[in-house]
Automatic annotation (TrEMBL):
The LYR motif-containing protein Cup1-like N-terminal domain, residue ranges: 14-93
Region (Disordered): 99-161, 265-337, 378-410
CDD domains recorded: Complex1_LYR_unchar
Composition bias, Basic and acidic residues: 122-138, 320-330
Protein name: LYR motif-containing protein Cup1-like N-terminal domain-containing protein
Compositional bias segments (type: Basic residues): 146-156, 300-310, 394-410
One Pfam family, short name: LYRM2-like
Amino acid sequence: MPPPIPHPETALHLYRHLLREATYLPALCRPWISDRIKTRYRDCREAESARADTYTRQAHGDLRYLRSATAGHVDRLLHLCYLATGRVGKRRRLLAKSGLARDPPASTASLEGESFLPDVSEDSKHKNGKENEPDRSEPALTQREHTRKKRDRHSRKTDLPPDWLDNWAVDKLTALARSQADKKLPHTITHDMRRTWDPEKNMSRENSWGLPIQARTERSRLRLGWARNFKALLPPLPRSEWESLEGLVNGRGRPEDYRLPRRRPVAKSTVVGDSGKDMHSSSPGPGITWQDIINTPVRRLQHGSSRKMKSLTGLDEMDQDPRGPGRPEGLRTLGGRKMRRMLYQPVWMASLTMEKHAVSGNFKVKWGQVSPTISSAAGKELPFFDGVETSGGRKSKSGAKQRGRGSRNS
């Protein structure tokens, strides 16, 4: 294990530490995490002193998180890959804004057709006070029929003011929500779509008296239903990025995509305190005197040796796994096969692409799927499968030997 890096004190020192740790991440999430570190540093550089202390504490936590991920913590590495591919976090909102937003009007005529101004005839009727009067030219109507007719007359979208739902393509949202409700996502993704995802189907259009609700109330309930769905929708990925992720899952990536970068050597710290201990170390060393133990709270002395801190630093002084020497607890040595199964496959199963059919105009949603592969039996295990029924329902003594990879006849 390399020696621990000195504890960063200033904001610039902490910024360099974060960028250094980002270089040890997998190639799938390295560009996005590095870009986010640079952007957040520039945004918070001119912050006030009170808020700067808060940002510094948060950055120290992020640094421990990155060190734990680069040391081999699979759950944290997977979360960083989710952030980079837009399954969670800021990029998820950016992909939704670019992929699920409503297309701009193609011509001036279509723009004029989307006018939200009320109808002049209806407005004049409202000013004259004749809106609540039934139409005398038609036969006498009941109160409920008259109210329903009035609602149908005022339920047009042009009679309502514009809202935030007008900026989204409802047909895309409907196709995506219907597909995601039928999709079984990985257990690491918490964005499960509700069964009652369609607000128009499950929305009550009558009040407690059995009368139809107003158009404004119906629109408000529709916005509320889609707002709940937005918390669970996973936006589609660009086609090129989706195909490159498919290549990583199927083993067609570059060799450096299936291993974590090796750590560069770090110079040893020479800053030593008066008592003979390393001042940058978070745990007490052998040079601690009894005055330090008396004057320092026990909670602070044992903080560096706690299990949480050891798993977050990921550099040294970590508990060893009882299953084998040299293996830190909670961390894994990730090779090509484990990276495909533990990192790339969950991200691939939670990714999708959306295309519009040229003839019907409907949107087709395609999710990433991993077909299970069953390996054949080894040569020493073949006698166990003798006599097993084949697909035709007949028993075969040599069927297992012919199908196995350890057949002596081959």
